[in-house]
Amino acid sequence: MTPSASAAAPAAISPVLAEVVRSGFVEGHHRGSLVVLAADGSVELSLGDPGAPVFPRSSNKPMQAAAVLRAGLELAGERLALAAASHSGEPFHLELARTMLAEHGLTEADLQTPPDLPLDPVETETYLASGHRRERITMNCSGKHAAMLAACALNGWDPATYLDPAHPLQRLVHEEVEAAAGEPVASVGTDGCGAPLMAISLVGLARAFRGYVLAERGTPQRRVADAMRAHPEYVAGTRRPDTWLMREVPGTLSKMGAEAVQAVALADGRALAFKIEDGSGRALGPVLARTLELMGVAAPVVGRIADAPLLGAGHRVGGVRAAF
Q: Which residues of the chain register pLDDT less than 70?
């Protein structure tokens, strides 16, 4: 039978970026798309379809933090880093988020984050053992939401609707994402924390991170990048790859996102972005480490990030490894 001329062409199959090896046997694959930009912004490596729009999820947070600064909110240091964070729910994260709210006459009740447990499993065990339950402040985006609410308080904007895509603050976010990515937002959705989520390509995401690292000092973009790099433990946590990378490779800006998205820019303006198609976070480290190796980053932390063991009876029997 001859296919109809109007039939849709089959979707291209994304390349395998990582494979799952157990006891010497390859038992699974993780496919995705990836891009590396050279120092001049040109595409140096392209796998899959990095020009297709994706939801960067929390990799968009630097742009959201820059929009808060553009709204006139004065943040710096740890506060600005936390505004761009997917924090682990460690005590110092929660304490600062509460402080940021209180400084503007706000409380945890003003947060519209869903009640959640700490993102870090070690912190979750401690948190539950202390008798706590899911709270809005514990959700990993509470620092970002505290900053958004503070910007609303400063400008007299309605705090009850701060997550509406039509809200003045979210319009600023939309503008900032488009300006940073150098392309129009392809779609607007709702992130896990309830905030509007703007879809851009992986090329646009890498371009945004590159632009933040190379931005003029004192601009909102450079202020965000500098705060994140100076205080990486507030961006992630003490046991997270983003923290390790920013702490141990000077000048690096790094931010992961849910559904296995990662963006990184090096001090010289080279940048990378990728997404694992099935959203599996276990492939993030090996793919990130392999990409950094191809970019010539030889720091010991790269090997640490690459380590993604598989266990059998509590013992290492294999691991996830990059396949490119």
A: 1-11
In this prediction the pTM is: 0.95
- Residue 269: both structure tokens together: 């303006």
Which 8-state DSSP code applies to residue 107? -
| Amino acid letter for position 61 | K
CA distance 24 to 319: 9
As a whole number of angstroms, the distance between CA 321 and CA 179 comes to 35
Question: Edge-to-edge strands of the sheet including 53-54?
Answer: 53-54, 196-201, 187-190
Segment (H or E) for 155: helix 142-155
Nearest C-alpha neighbor of 85 from the set 292, 193, 234, 225 = 234
251's tokens? 């000048």
- 289: number of Cβ within 10 Å: 23
pLDDT digits (tens, 9 = 90+) for 157-201: 999 999 999 999 999 999 999 999 999 999 999 999 999 999 999
